[in-house]
């Protein structure tokens, strides 16, 4: 028998247990016509539903309206929140800061108070081990000119010392991949990165195949749209998930995939999210 060693080739697979969901998708929205909203009345219930449906990863959300009801903002509730998450085997690795989108500090000086909110949330989140803080630069907070971009750069760079070990601020930005790279290169890569939203790829017609762009991506929101359209069920829009998942496997992407699909009709929240999860799992 030959003594030659047999090489075992391992495929670069994205683990299915890296698939999580955006907070609020397993329960009905508590604010009319709002797709994404912190469920202040049902956040505990949602975690229990998630556990029952074998979800182990959730991205937390923080809105401006009910911020004082959000335990992530309340220092006295952080330990209780941590214990509840541990009891229910729920990991929160990322937090989307929608309050920054609702009150863009770089468009109105009256909105600068949201930077204090971000500082407080980052401080509180250290106890929970949250790794990524998503800064949305889309919709209401879409950058309109270089002056606004410069304001963001100056303000965000001040957060470098506020971020704890291994934590980063990730920008979800509606720039093209090429322009996004130019933007992110002006930041310290050990403290800043990109949150990729696949819905932008479909809605804006962007191509996310560029490796120089993908190396900055640390978290991914899974969403689908028709070109210039609204969010719809995954697989029904123009985003090529099969091709995209193959690409990020090749580059050995190790971050989370967060389900952020269109909301369910007739409050069939659990059914809808599981349907989207099944679609992605088949491709994985």
Topology:
Layout: E1 19-22, H1 43-52, E2 57-61, H2 78-87, E3 91-96, H3 98-102, H4 113-125, E4 132-137, H5 146-157, E5 168-173, H6 177-184, E6 192-197, H7 198-204, H8 211-214, E7 217-222, E8 224-225, E9 231-232, H9 241-250, E10 256-259, H10 269-283
Parallel strand pairs: 1-2, 1-10, 2-3, 3-4, 4-5, 5-6, 6-7, 7-10
Antiparallel strand pairs: 8-9
Overview in brief:
With 284 residues, the protein is an alpha/beta fold. The chain has 10 helices and 10 strands. 33% of the residues lie in helices and 17% in strands.
Number of strands: 10
Number of distinct helices? 10
CATH overall fold name: TIM Barrel
N to C succession of SSEs: EHEHEHHEHEHEHHEEEHEH
What structural category characterises the helix and strand content? Answer: alpha/beta
> How would a crystallographer describe the biggest sheet?
8 strands, parallel, barrel
> Would you identify the CATH architecture?
Alpha-Beta Barrel
CATH class: Alpha Beta
Strand line-up across the major sheet: 1-2-3-4-5-6-7-10
Distance between the termini: 38 Å
Low-confidence segments, given as residue ranges, are: 1-12
Mean pLDDT score: 93
Question: Oligomer, anyone?
Answer: single chain
Strand residue content: 15-25%
User: Considering the protein shown, what is the CATH homologous superfamily?
Assistant: Divalent-metal-dependent TIM barrel enzymes
Radius of gyration, Cα only, in angstroms?
19 Å
Helical proportion, percent range: 25-40%
| Overall domain count | 1
Shape verdict: globular
